[in-house]
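Researcher: Next entry in the queue.
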Amino acid sequence: MIICHPKTRVPNKQSTQSRPNIEGFPMPDYVPTNAASSGVKLDKKTLKQIAARSDRPGLVYLTKWIATLVLSGALVTTTLGTIWMWPTMFVLGVFLTVPAYSFSHECAHGTAFRSRWINEAVLWITSLIYLEEPLHRRYTHTNHHTHTWHVGKDSQMPFDTPMGFGCWIAEITGFALLRFHLQVFGQLALRRYTPIMRDVTPETEFPRMTRNARIMIAIYAGLILLPLIGIMWPLWFIIVPRIMGAPIMLLFTLTQHVELMENSPSIVESTRSFRGSRLGDFLYMNMNNHMEHHLYPNVPFHALPQLAQAIKDQVPAPDPGFFRTNFEVFLITLRRSMGKSTKAQHIRQAPHMVTNGGPIQKIAERSM
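Model: Structure for this entry, 368 residues:
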């Protein structure tokens, strides 16, 4: 039997005092989460070199991404009407959704390109694919970096903590995130700005956010309506691939903070990196170096491996690769929901995430 206590929290050594957050729930005192709060140091000259921005890496990546979409789209075209259309749509979906998430994330930081207008244009298009209004994405993500994994303050905690198997299913299928994004689109389009939105967003940005949301809703409505009048290409090349590719995208993002320490000023305790592969590094834009990204979020995607090498002696070794790490998370959540031991074998875990069974004591509810 699983018993959840939505308002209970497990304290840690960094969170001995508390004060109310914007929803009235207790939250710990905190400091902005970054390299300084984590005790990680990198000399200014080296950091400046690593963090240098350029249009070239982003344009090269954009060209490669478009090429993968053209090739995988061609595969869908040649297999339409056969059973092979489904695996080819899945391949197209992976190349559509994972880089769209990664690119929109990088552009939200403003580090994908040196030229601001290119960065903003790509942010808009990739956010359209990812299904989030771009300015909402930028400001809530800035908040996520400032208060990484702080209960009641981080506006991008996408799942309940600790995670059970039911929550894992809801997360990787994409339905939980889709519901949140649709809710945000409705709130922005109707100008019903939430306290969290107002807390993280400059007031002057709301008119632009409302305009973007309404335009995007119109585009989505058009894509849905076209198949109803017999125009089927949006269904085979956008809608179905987007749905099929979402679980892979979400498995990448799930690894970022799951099973790690909440309410800690240390990124090392709250954030995970895992070993990459050539395909994974391309799809995820080197964001498998996620701990390094949170330590120095001004470092562009193409320089993250260089950053990881520069600070490797100050941070834990990366966890196993994409498949091994996600399989371990799957086993942990399944065993937790069955009331069994949650000790991980190969990935890092916060000490209080390890139990020998019993009911789930919920620390935090999802904020997105």
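Model: Residues 53-353 form one domain.
Researcher: Noted, moving on.
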